[in-house]
Amino acid sequence: MLTHKGPEDWRAANRAMWDERVPLHLASDYYDQDGFRRRRDVIRDFEVAEVGDVTGRTLLHLQCHIGQDTLSWVHRGAAHAVGLDFSEPAVEAARATAAELGIGPDRATFLAADVYDAAEAVAASATAPDTYDVVYTGIGSLCWLPDIRRWAETAASLIAPGGFLYLAEFHPLTDALDDESGSRIAHDYFSRDAWVDESPGTYTDFSAPTVNNRRVEWQHTLGDVVSALAATGLRLEFLHEHDMTMFQRFGSLERGDDGFYRLPAGRPRVPLMYSLKATRP
User: Fold this and answer.
1) What is the pLDDT of residues 50-62, one digit of tens each?
2) Which ranges of the chain would DSSP assign to H, the alpha helix?
3) Which one of 25, 88, 104, 243 has the largest count of C-beta atoms within 10 Å of its C-beta?
C-alpha cells in the first residue's frame, strides 16, 4: 500500500506550521540568508555530481520552501528554474530573494501550490515551462505526503522526454532507529500510521516560541518510493545510499569537516540518506 491514512486536517495543520516558521528560517543561522546572497549556491557536492551540469536546462523544484536550492540551480546555469511550495509566505520570500539577486521571472518562477497540484499550477503559470529537463526534490520533503504514488505520478508527468527526476532524501531506516544512539531498532520500519506531533520550535531553533505546532508526517519505505516511480514508466538510473546526513539525527552522530554528520569511526555504518535518478525514456 503506497497511500497512507491520516487526520483530515493534515494539510491545513502542516501549512499553518510551515507558514509560521518561514520568518524564523529567514532569520536563522541555518539558512544564513546574508551568506546565501553572497554565495548564491547551497547545493551539496554529492547532488552536483549526481545531477550533473544543468546549463541551459529547465528545472522544477518541488516543495522548494524559501527557494535557496531553486535559485542555486539558476546560479549553476539552469535556463529556467521553477520552485513550487504550498506555503505562500515561503513562496513570497523566495520571490523577494530572487528580486534582490536580480533574477527575473524569465529565469526563476515561484508558484504557491500543493505538490499534488503541481501540474495544474505549472499549466496556469504565464512563465513556467510545461515540462522540465530536471525535476528536483527531496531532503525532508516526502515525509509530508501521505500518497507516494500520486506524488510519483505528478512528478513523472512534468518530466520532458529524455529528462529525469532527481531525489535526495533522508533514509527511511533512520525512522526505525532509536533517537539517542541510532544503534537499535526502536520503531516499525513498515508503519503506515501518520505521526502527529505538537512540539514547539523548529529545526533551525528548537527553543523558538511557536503557536502552530501540530504537524502530521508519514514514513515511506525505500521499496514504496522506488515502486511508485517504476509504476509511472520512469527508468531507474541509480539508487545510492549514503552514510552521512544533514543534521544530528541521533545523539551519537559526529559532524565532519565537510559539514555532514556520520556515526563514530569504528561503529558499523547504516544508510542515513539516499538519492536516486529516474529517467523518462
Assistant:
1) 999 999 999 999 9
2) 10-26, 33-39, 45-51, 68-75, 88-100, 118-124, 148-157, 222-231
3) 25
Average pLDDT over residues 111-136: 97
Q: Is 260 left (phi over 0), alpha (psi -120 to 50) or beta?
A: beta
SS3 label, residue 31: coil
Residue type (1 letter), 35: G
Asked if the model's pLDDT at residue 2 lies above 80, the reply is no
CA-CA distance, 11 to 217, in Å (whole number)? 10
Burial call 72-83: b when 16+ CB within 10 Å, e when fewer: bbbbbebebbbb
Would you tell me how many other CB atoms lie within 10 Å of the CB of residue 26?
Answer: 16
Decide: 279 and 163 in contact? Cβ < 8 Å: yes
Domains of the chain: residue spans and CATH: 10-279 (3.40.50.150)
Ramachandran assignment for 111, one of left (phi > 0), alpha (psi -120 to 50 degrees), beta (any other): beta
What gap in Å lies between CA 87 and CA 18, rounded to an integer? Answer: 7
Grid look-up 510519483 returns: 152
The Cα–Cα gap between 253 and 174 comes to 12
Q: What is the pLDDT of residue 187?
A: 93
What average pLDDT score do residues 122-148 get?
96
Q: Which of 236, 239, 255, 257 is nearest to 247 (CA)?
A: 255
Place of cell 508526517: 217
Cell digits of residue 267: 561503529
Per the listing, cell 526505525 goes with: 176
pLDDT higher than threshold 70 for residue 48: yes
φ/ψ of 10, rounded to 5, equals -60, -45
Confidence of residue 181 (pLDDT cuts 50, 70, 90): confident
